[in-house]
């Protein structure tokens, strides 16, 4: 049985589900965090609606004392921030008490990347001639070939492909526009998808919305492919080659950056291609590339292993 919450907290979770489209797993985790907070507040004799920043800091300190890890604490803080911002927006409370509550610092994790052979195997496994096959091959080739975010790829419109200069226009965070190179394999896969056997066969006689008619990638109902739909397509293709636990759209982005660096690309070029605001983000891939280089060296060089006795 899910934990019972106050009506105000239940309304917040319903809003997250309906308006924000949060997944079931996310909502379950949020429910647990809210239930823990409400239990703590009741034990302390605190009304959640009138909780102060100090009250919330004490709650988070209590979670820390119980052994919560930084990621769990960060999520609990996010849940509280979201709850109180929702209440302020709804007029339930006048002031957000979480405005000055700090989140725990999380260690920066190295991004995951596939081996080049794994990526090639994934791409070449999608070799069917049905419209959905042509779409998924183009989707995968563009994700890996450009390093674009999944939201950027599903947001592509046909006008973003019209140039003959081998560049693709994408709109990143904050609707910031950038041009990224479109390699030969991605271009070829897109041409097949946009050709007579691909997108035209998936398109309806009449599009429901103008944004659907302009979309590069469509779903089987003839509407613009959503972020969730693209994620599911990648997942299905990865499962078929035994990479279900290793592949996601973001892993393909990581792999693009890591493989470019491994082959000698300048870090500033990779930063520009991926649309990183800070070079520090791109530098994470440099470390990953170095680790990959060392591992490959240790495997391949006959004198790289331990020194034999004698």
Describe this entry's structure for a reader.
By secondary structure, this protein is mainly α. It has 14 helices and two strands, in the order αααααααββααααααα. It has helices at 7-18, 24-44, 53-65, 70-90, 116-125, 131-146, 150-154, 184-194, 199-202, 210-214, 227-240, 249-262, 267-274, 279-300, and strands spanning 167-171, 177-181. Strands 1-2 form a two-stranded antiparallel ribbon. Strand 1 and strand 2 (177-181) form a beta hairpin. Helix 6 (131-146) crosses helix 12 (249-262). The mean pLDDT is 87.
The total tally of domains equals: 2
CATH class of the largest domain: Mainly Alpha
Task: Examine the secondary-structure arrangement and name the CATH architecture of the largest domain.
Answer: Orthogonal Bundle
CATH topology of the largest domain: the name is hpI Integrase, Chain A
CATH superfamily of the largest domain, by name, is: Intergrase catalytic core
Brief account:
The chain is mainly α.
Keywords:
single chain, 310 residues, DNA polymerase, domain 1, hpI Integrase, Chain A, two-stranded antiparallel sheet, 14 helices, 57% helix
Draw up the topology in text.
Blueprint lengths: L6 H12 L5 H21 L8 H13 L4 H21 L25 H10 L5 H16 L3 H5 L12 E5 L5 E5 L2 H11 L4 H4 L7 H5 L12 H14 L8 H14 L4 H8 L4 H22 L10
Antiparallel strand pairs: 1-2
Helix pairs in contact: 1-2, 3-4, 6-8, 6-12, 12-14, 13-14
């Amino acid at each position: 049985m899910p934990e019972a919450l106050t009506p105000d907290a239940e309304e917040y979770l319903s809003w997250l589900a309906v308006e924000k489209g949060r997944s079931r797993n996310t909502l379950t985790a949020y429910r647990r965090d809210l239930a823990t907070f409400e239990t703590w507040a009741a034990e302390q004799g605190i009304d959640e609606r009138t909780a102060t920043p100090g009250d919330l800091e004490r709650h988070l300190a209590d979670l820390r004392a119980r052994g919560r890890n930084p990621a769990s604490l960060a999520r609990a803080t996010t849940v509280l921030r979201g709850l109180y911002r929702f209440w302020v927006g709804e007029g339930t409370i006048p002031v957000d008490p979480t405005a000055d509550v700090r989140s725990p610092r999380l260690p920066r994790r190295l991004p995951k990347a596939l081996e080049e052979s794994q990526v090639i195997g994934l791409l070449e496994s999608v070799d069917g001639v049905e419209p959905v096959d042509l779409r998924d091959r183009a989707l995968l080739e563009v994700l890996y070939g450009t390093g674009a975010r999944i939201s950027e790829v599903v947001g592509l419109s046909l006008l973003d492909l019209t140039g003959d200069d081998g560049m693709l226009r994408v709109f990143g965070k904050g609707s910031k526009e950038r041009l990224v190179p479109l390699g030969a394999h991605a271009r070829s896969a897109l041409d097949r998808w946009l050709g007579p056997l691909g997108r035209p066969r998936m398109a309806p006689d009449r599009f429901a919305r103008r944004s659907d008619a302009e979309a590069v990638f469509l779903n089987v109902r003839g509407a613009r492919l959503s972020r969730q739909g693209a994620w599911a397509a990648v997942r299905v293709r990865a499962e078929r080659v035994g990479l279900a636990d290793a592949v996601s759209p973001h892993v393909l982005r990581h792999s693009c950056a890591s493989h470019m660096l491994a082959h000698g690309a300048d870090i500033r070029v990779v930063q520009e291609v991926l649309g990183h605001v800070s070079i520090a983000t791109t530098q994470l891939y440099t470390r990953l590339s170095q680790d990959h280089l060392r591992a490959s060296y240790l495997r391949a060089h006959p004198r790289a292993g331990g020194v034999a006795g004698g």
